[in-house]
Amino acid sequence: MQARSLDRREIRQTLARLANALEQSPLPARGWTSLSEILGPEELAGLLGISGSSLRRYAGGARPTPDEVAARLHVLATVVADLLGTYNALRVRRWFHRPRSALGGRSPAEVLSGPWNPEDEGPRAVRALARSLLGSSAT
Fold it and tell me: Among 34, 47, 56, 127, which has the minimal tally of Cβ within 10 Å of its Cβ?
């Protein structure tokens, strides 16, 4: 059987499906280290709605990351990745604490307080706000 070649449209669609699948697949082992370095462990624990001691256990591999925490970690990783397209690490940290009109005057940290669900309206709005900054010169 001979493989057929794909046209540009099919390649774009295939790549978009692959990117979407990767975006939907949390990898907590990779997220703990990079997000802790950028946000700091206390900030990260607060945004995830977990204690500092739980963060240390999950990040160190002493306990497996629960699915709901892995999902929140994944959302934060995508938000931070989008912000790093515009901001440096210091400004990323500050971004989470500035009130945003798109969030009804609340800061992203306020929206992402407690044990939030990535499918809830607030976290989706935070994700959309961060994504909207890609390629802009927003401050």
Answer: 34
